[in-house]
Amino acid sequence: PKGNMAFTGKYEFEGDENYDEFVKKIGLPSDKIEMGRNCKIVTEVVQNGNDFTWTQHFPGGRTTTNVFTVGSEADMETMGGKKFKATVKIEDGKLVADFPNYRHTAEICGGKLVEISTSSGVVYKRTSKKIA
């Protein structure tokens, strides 16, 4: 696989694009929309070869953790807390997962974690800077 596959680290939310349009498109309730807006989420990634533990720490102490192995089906949880099964793949150095109503990619770009979610043509981009 091409690209920099070293995901391990701790990343703090830096900025996003198209948040409102995207979360409305995927049907997030308005209280969750408000909670997530400009939310200083810290994403912690532990990578061991193709095995990943991907944790998001939300202000107020809530965390979401997805544990997966590239190429194997895993139990995952969406932004909205829905549980589902997905197989994470690697394409061009990016992690790619098809969530129930959007496609999510993650890559390390210039030391930053760049995540892109796409739903029916709406592209939501979130950038996080490495803090550890």
UniProtKB/TrEMBL annotation:
Q: Which GO terms describe its molecular function?
A: lipid binding
User: What are the protein's UniProt keywords?
Assistant: Cytoplasm, Lipid-binding, Transport
> Which chain regions cross the lipid bilayer?
none
User: Where does this polypeptide localize?
Assistant: Cytoplasm
Q: Residues in domain Cytosolic fatty-acid binding proteins?
A: 9-26
Keyword Ion transport applies: no
Q: What would be one Pfam family of this protein?
A: Lipocalin_7
Tell me yes or no: is Transmembrane among this UniProt entry's keywords. Answer: no
Q: Which GO terms describe its cellular component?
A: cytoplasm
Q: Which domain of life is it from?
A: Eukaryota
Q: Which family does it belong to?
A: Belongs to the calycin superfamily. Fatty-acid binding protein (FABP) family.
- Supply the name of the protein: FABP6 protein
Organism this protein belongs to: Pitta sordida (Hooded pitta)
